[in-house]
Amino acid sequence: MDFNQQLRSYDPEAIARYYRRRPWKLIGRALKILWYFSGFVIGLFWDRWLLADHSSEPDDPTGSPPQPGRPHSTHTANPARAEHLRKILTTLGPTYIKVGQALSTRPDLIRPDFLSELIKLQDQLPPFSDPLAFEIIERELGASVQDTYREITPHPVAAASLGQVYRAKLFSGEEVAIKVQRPNLVPKLTCDLCLMRWAAGRFAPLLPLNLGHDLTLIVDEFGTKLFEEIDYVNEGRNAERFAANFAGHDHVKVPKIYWRFTSTRVLTLEWIHGCKLTTSELRCSGLDADATVKVGVIAGLQQLLEFGFFHADPHPGNLFALAAPESKMGACMAYIDFGMMDQLEEFTKETLVDAVVHLINQDYNALTRDFVNLGFLAPGTDIRPIIPAIESVLGDVMGESVKDFNFKTITDRFSQLMFDYPFRVPAKFALIIRSLVTQEGLALSVNPDFK
Q1: Helix 364-374 and helix 346-360: axis angle, to 10°?
Q2: pTM of the prediction?
Q3: Residues near 266 by Cβ (< 8 Å), separated by ≥ 6?
Q4: I need a labelling partner for 53 at 20 to 30 A (CA). Which of 118, 247, 284, 404 fits?
Q5: Residue from 104, 128, 126 nearest 116 by CA
């Protein structure tokens, strides 16, 4: 059996050994990646040159001098360049699509014109062929599609980075979604992850101070989560565990898993009748936007601080709002896609709560010790010069009350400290930060006044 068929979980050492004996596979892939991105980078420099060449402002017809303190943009929006980046990531395949999806939740890092294109990677991806998808279903489930499902759509209703979804009916009459994995995923993932890990080890020391610290560990965490995502049996177990946590809570809906029609590469689950988290769709469905946002926030905090088992990929394609007249909160949030989940230890949960309390109370001495306990600062670090730095950066974030708390602002300010002090982002917290920023972004898109 081929190595990539045997590999069931992410093993960076085994992957490195495999490709050391087959360097031509890495070289060919690396050249392809460089070819695509070199044209994109040249385009960025061209845009910057054009901006610099035309940056002088025309004379004001009134003769007024330029206004002092007027902001000057360091870039100009270029929809064609942003579309080019999205197409590159799509062409390079699943690994790079997942990277693009992660970046699409980081408005603090990505230009707005690029952000609007990267968001399309969440639910606007090209599908693979239907005959191949049906062949995978039959091979995995051991029966023909016609013998397994009473009805099935001839084409997918959605396509994602790792698979695509068909709508179907079982012979029992139940409506289901069938998630079919893309073919030949493992060889593509192992090759890309091997190259990323090599690049992380070589280029991390060149990054400013601690930005490259533990970059290899972040790649490994990314690889671990990718391999967990492509095991649909694992995803089904995650869904049932998530549902068990919210048993008795009528504000969260988790689709039922049909194990008889599920395998490592095919997942059959209950079809969810919901609407996307946009103001227009919520209004058309008669749902209360404020109640929906409240439900999403409460469910997100419960995952992190009560259960410790959290959905690490809550982008707009994985969340739906449902009408729930029987719910005390007046709304219900449905979660789908449980491939990327993570677990927090009890100590980490308690320390996170402490850190939030210390931040709200502006106790920066205790907050700095929390950073040590959470792994953002190494044990033994001299925190005396760091405490006033944290206060100067975060001191005005909170305003006068808890209602002014804004997680994205805090992460933006905190990133400034990375340049001057020995902070690092533990691999697990990269997922937590991504989850929180994404959920806050979703809440703000539905209700701009959300706090």
Answers
A1: 160
A2: 0.80
A3: 136, 137, 140, 141, 178, 179, 180, 181, 232
A4: 118
A5: 104
Hey, how many other C-beta atoms are within 10 angstroms of the C-beta on 87?
A: 13
H helices of 361-425, in order, are: 364-374, 386-394, 407-417
Q: Which residues of 40-53 are buried (b: 16+ CB within 10 A; e: fewer)?
A: eeeeeeebeeeeee
Residue span of the structural domain in which 9 resides: 3-49+77-122
Which helix (H) or strand (E) element contains residue 426?
A: none
State how far the Cα of 361 lies from the Cα of 351, in Å rounded to an integer. 15
CA distances from residue 240 to 43, 104, 249 in whole angstroms, order as listed: 47, 28, 14
| Among 64, 97, 122, residue at a domain's last position | 122
DSSP string of 83-140?
Answer: HHHHHHHHHH-HHHHHHHHHHTT-TTTS-HHHHHHHGGGGT------HHHHHHHHHHH
Q: How far apart are CA 61 and CA 58, in angstroms?
A: 9
Catalytic residue among 214, 231, 313, 342: 313
**Active-site residue 313, yes or no?**
yes
Q: Which two tokens stand for residue 373?
A: 């306990």
The CA-CA-CA angle for residues 250, 256, 258, to 5°, reads 170
Contact 30, 71 (CB under 8 A): no
Q: 48, 223 in Cβ contact below 8 A?
A: no
Q: pLDDT grade, residue 168 (50/70/90)?
A: very high
- Whether 190 is in a domain gets the answer no
Q: Report, in this order, helix, strand and coil percent for the chain, each rounded to 5.
A: 55, 10, 35
Q: State pLDDT tens for residues 183-233.
A: 999 999 999 999 999 998 888 776 654 554 567 888 898 899 899 999 999
**Per-residue buried b or exposed e for 317-338, using 16+ beta carbons within 10 Å of the residue's own CB:** bbbbbbbbeebebbbbbbbbbb
Per residue in 100-111, pLDDT (tens digit) is 887 776 655 677
R_g of the chain, CA atoms, integer Å: 24
CA distances from 122 to 13, 84, 90, 315, 349 (A): 31, 16, 11, 7, 29
Tokens of 211: 């930005």
Query: How many separate domains does the chain show?
Result: 2
- H helix and E strand count, the chain: 18, 10
In this structure, is residue 273 part of a structural domain? no
Residue 375 lies in a domain: yes
Alpha helix stretches (DSSP H) within 204-340: 215-229, 232-245, 279-284, 289-301
The answer on pLDDT for 301 being more than 70 is yes
In a domain, 413, yes or no: yes
